[in-house]
Amino acid sequence: MGKYLDPKADLTFKKIFGEHKNLVVSLLNALLPLKSDERVESIEYWPAEKIPDRTEAEKYSIVDVCCKDNKKREFIVEMQMTWTDSFKRRVLLNASKAYVAQTGKGMNYSSLQPVYALNFVNAVFLEDVDDYYHYYHLVHDKYTDEVIDGLHLIFIELKKFRPVSFSERKMQVLWLRFLTEINEKTVEAPAELLQNAEVNEALEIVERAAFSDEDMRFYDRFWDRVSTQRTFEEEVKRKAEERAKEKAEKWAEERVRKAEAMAEAKIEQAEAMAEAKIEQAEAMAEAKIEQAEAKAEQAEAKMKQTTIDTARKLKSMGLPAKQIAEVTGLTAEQIEKI
Length: 338
Known about the structure:
Layout: H1 10-17, H2 21-31, E1 43-45, H3 56-61, E2 62-69, E3 74-80, H4 87-100, E4 115-121, E5 133-139, E6 147-157, H5 170-181, H6 191-194, H7 197-205, H8 213-316, H9 321-328, H10 332-337
Parallel strand pairs: 3-4, 4-6
Antiparallel strand pairs: 1-2, 2-3, 5-6
Helix pairs in contact: 2-5, 8-9
């Protein structure tokens, strides 16, 4: 059995960052995209009635801490144990509600302060992207220096984070190592975490010995519910994928069927055209044969008439029938009839 509890659970996360202002200030300064003159100095937690409502499923999969600083900027810090495509829209909605809630009757819009939604996601939601840190805000699509300051949405994929040493982001690395490396199996915390005063304080808060038996039962129920919710969402996703696959297969089958029908129609059309051309060619050939035969008959008749005319002329000249037969090839009987 390890020395610590997992800081991502509802009980531990809220005990660290929901009860110790210095730690949530450190976390915000480490993880938010703030300039040096924008750092958070002090915070006050939101009253309970301002905390965003949760659905039954979200109560088991989302842990949050909400606060505002001395500049009236508002911060929503969440630990999301599971992920669905609707979470981005839900985060945007809650941040928008917090922004709108600042307005009052006759209020000057210039006094509105930005809202930061810092979301730790214990899952991967951008499969083809290596970066674990994702910052969304309103920026001109061409002139990126032009920004509308209002809503800042930050999503951190804890599953992608790998412990590296970046001196300019030391606290970011330390806090993310704390959130990803410390759990029930941790017997001894890494030296780098113990040497930092703020992270070391967080480690002392999540020591198993600091929690009562009732706390442990609550802690275990949280993870059971997360596991149940994750199983449910995986089942929903699996069924959705199966429906999408079936739909794709039906679509593909329909496309194949239509393609085969079109191909069959084109084949039938080609066969009909070929048959028509063959019939046309046969008709033309038959007509030419008949025409040739007619010409041959005409030539034969003309030749026969020429022979008869020649024989008649020779006969009128008094040549004997024998000589006329030799010249024309007619028989004596034919010559006699002329």
